[in-house]
């Protein structure tokens, strides 16, 4: 295999990896605030992408407008779900909330099927189709576009978490909820903000990836790889989520070159099992091992 | 004149356990008042009820004459009550500076620099360490940070839970000197402290709690002379914990 071809594979791996990273970040944002997993994260991504697409079909908005619609739709959906359902269950066990979000994911998928059928739809891309030649390497613009947009979003999130009052409050809640309350932080407002922010990140990821994997009620499944990416990076760590996502994307794209090509869809799970056995704290993580 | 804090017949239950059962106390404006008592007597729970971390089952809590019994914790902070919890609870993954900034969560943006300056004036060591992670500070420095962080909102009532716990005597003395300085600026202090002697020296008045009830109250002088307080909390005579209750044999 030539170096040029290898670079091509790695770059497209980084592109899917960026999406995994964004999904992982979404999961980690909610986990850090509430210590629960949102199994419906993928379906929320799917619904918001559909909403953007539906508005696009009607109004022929420019793509940036589609993304804006998806983002606003995602924010409203997350806010409503958090206020109407999750908030009332938050004093229950984390396991209850987990099951609720699992149920939500099934309901959202059915709802999408009713509204838009379970077919695949082509989704317009921000980026052209013609491969770009960089020296001998040919790169798909969509890959570079996804990587670039994801990195920009990650930089914005980094600024939010380190430079703003809301971001600091979210990190404070992640470390010690009681102490955060004593600082005058409304922990309930941080829950809301976390759900909304996670959904917004998911919506952007959805609009970026839909042209590649097609728009369908099944696209929420990407959350599983997001989850694996988060574990890979040490669940709870944002930089870990980014590294884990990128790593997973690249491994998943490289593996079929050396192993039977049918292995591709098993790769994330093999990686997950390997990481849990070898480095349960994640590749960059610091999560303490549970004593048994 | 209204008191900074008035508590009437406070009761707090954790499930079936009665942590506080009918406590009434007042803290005057600008006054230092101490709560004494053995572990589990309800001192920390009383502070938690004041700052809104736990909901009382019964009773009323008035701050500056306003009923804050059902006010959420974040609004109680904004109203001017700061609580330094037992064990400091600094944010270990934040730098000293970030801890102070988050302490000023409810403070207007334009005020922040001045408040930071005040914190660094009170504890110069925090200025030197402002970019160090709080989790790597010594116990004494963490306590200073916890107090400085609580002062970022310029509270008029400061709740301190065991500020000298685990500190070397010299550091403990320094913390107590600082509490006096803070008080001299007009901040009322409700102090929970295991070192009763030191607490009574600092406070004007005190209450002794036992199994969730006030069993003795009075001026520090009176408490210091009370034979039961002397034996149980000042270690001046032999006596079992719980000297005020007739316990079944």
The CATH class of the domain at 5-89 and 156-233 in chain B, by name, is Alpha Beta
The computed structural class of chain B is alpha/beta
Q: What is the 3D form of chain B?
A: globular
Relative strand content of chain A: under 5%
CATH architecture field of the domain at 5-89 and 156-233 in chain B: 3-Layer(aba) Sandwich
The CATH superfamily of the domain at 5-89 and 156-233 in chain B turns out to be P-loop containing nucleotide triphosphate hydrolases
Shape of chain A: globular
What profile does the largest beta sheet of chain B have? 6 strands, mixed
Strands of the biggest beta sheet of chain B: in what spatial order? Answer: 6-7-8-3-9-10
User: Which strand-content bin applies to the residues of chain B?
Assistant: 15-25%
Q: Could you estimate the helical fraction of the residues of chain B in percent?
A: 25-40%
Q: How far is the N terminus from the C terminus of chain A? A: 46 Å
Mean pLDDT of chain A: 90
Q: Biggest interface in this structure?
A: A-B, 17 and 27 residues
Our Rg estimate of chain A from Cα atoms comes to 19 Å
Low-confidence segments of chain B, given as residue ranges, are 238-242
Oligomer: heterodimer
**Average pLDDT across residues of chain B?**
92
